[in-house]
Design brief:
Structural class: alpha/beta
Largest sheet: 5 strands, mixed
Strand order of the largest sheet: 6-5-4-7-11
Shape: globular
Order of helices and strands: HHEHHEEEEEHEEEEHEHEEEHHHEHHEH
Distance between the termini: 17 Å
Length: about 400
């Protein structure tokens, strides 16, 4: 796939697209889908023979052999040698994704004080990393810092680059244009096109919370019906329903930070920024509340508990409407884990019909601070190879 083709598509992540293909499709879509099906099986399972692939995918052996020949020629798949077997006959040849043939550049623009990036292998392991301090830069100055970071990371790659993935705050459409990112002073910034033109590599740009949700799904084993809440300078959410990302009619699905929570000022009150979720839950607000409590010689637990309650209020209608099985929190563990998460669960259970959500879990991410970087790698894997 060429850079132009990647730019002109949705990066393989269009609305309703299930992330992991598992079955055959109509003839007009068959070849690309079946190619992804073979790659997906190898990516998740590894070390499979052609016969194994035919059996596990439901494809014919002839189709599998044809696709494998194509993938071997492209260097995306390698033969590992013959399987040890006590059975008579010629042993099967094992195959795998060529995991060392390419590297991925991932960029995380979501931190409030710096831009972070990494060169990763196809399994999301970090090979080299870098960062640039934001220093309150916005607009063109912030974009220049992105360019500098990407240039450094591209130079650090030690294998051909499969693509560049970027997780950005704000509202991002399917062409990788940042429609609005207020904290960075960006409006209608065609970042995907800009970076592709600048580097000559395929680029996929998406909302940071969506990227984080992909990382948890791919590397953390998250359920196909899941909402990931990313808490940082602001609050965003990535939403997976039936294994597909939800974008919304204006690409703003998951922007829950600006939703008013509670009826503190009465039922007829209009939008008030002092009553939105970020007023209680963002990292700066939590840190401020904890500092004030400690300065007054008081326990800070009520600050965390109230933030968790407000989050539960915001999430209850979503959980009720979509019957989600899992809520994943991503952000500082010392703030989110413990009283805050416990209060979220308690509020959710109090505000939804218990028998419909008895198995709902609220947990911390398993990906740590690199979750958006690893999600950026999944953006590339899904867009370029159709795997996740």
């Amino acid at each position: 796939m060429t850079t132009t083709e990647v730019q002109g598509s949705t990066g393989g992540l269009g609305p309703g697209r299930v992330l992991r293909p598992r079955a055959k499709v109509l003839p007009e879509h068959a070849r690309s889908h079946n190619r992804s099906l073979v790659l997906q099986t190898l990516y998740r399972s590894g070390e499979r023979s052609r016969a194994d692939l035919a059996r596990e995918t439901g494809l014919t052996r002839v189709t599998v052999s044809d696709l494998v020949a194509e993938l071997l020629a492209e260097g995306l798949v390698i033969e590992l040698g013959q399987r040890e077997s006590a059975r008579p006959g010629k042993p099967a040849v094992l195959l795998d994704i060529n995991r060392s043939a390419h590297q991925i550049v991932g960029v995380d623009l979501s931190d409030h004080d710096r831009f972070r990036g990494a060169v990763m292998d196809l399994d999301g392991a970090i090979i080299a990393s870098g960062e640039v301090m934001l220093d309150d830069a916005t607009g063109d100055a912030a974009l220049a810092k992105v360019d500098a970071l990407v240039d450094t990371l591209v130079a650090d790659a030690t294998a051909p680059i499969l693509g560049i993935g970027v997780g950005s705050p704000g509202v991002v459409d399917l062409s990788g244009t940042i429609l609005t990112a207020p904290n960075l002073g960006w409006t209608d910034l065609a970042l995907q096109q800009h970076l592709a033109d600048r580097t000559g590599h395929p680029v996929v740009v998406a909302n940071d919370a969506n990227a984080a949700a992909l990382a948890e799904h791919t590397y953390g084993g998250a359920a196909g019906d899941m909402m990931l809440i990313r808490v940082g300078h602001g609050i965003g959410a990535g939403l997976l329903v039936a294994g597909a990302l939800v974008y919304g009619s204006h690409f703003a699905a998951g922007e829950i930070g600006q939703v008013m929570v509670g009826t503190d000022l009465g039922l007829d009150t209009t939008y008030n920024r002092d009553q939105v979720l970020e007023h209680w839950l963002s990292v700066p607000q939590l840190q401020r509340g904890i500092h004030e409590a400690h300065s007054a010689g008081q326990d800070a637990t009520p600050v965390l508990r109230e933030a968790g309650q407000r989050l539960g209020i915001a999430l209850a209608p979503v959980v009720g409407a979509l019957n989600l099985s899992e809520i994943v929190l991503a952000g500082p563990t010392e703030l989110l884990d413990g009283p805050l998460a416990e209060a979220t669960v308690h509020t959710l259970r109090n505000r939804t019909m218990a028998e419909n959500h008895a198995d709902l879990s609220v947990r911390m991410t398993t990906q740590g601070q690199d979750i958006v970087l690893r999600g950026a790698a999944v953006l590339v894997l899904s867009g370029r190879l159709g795997v996740s």
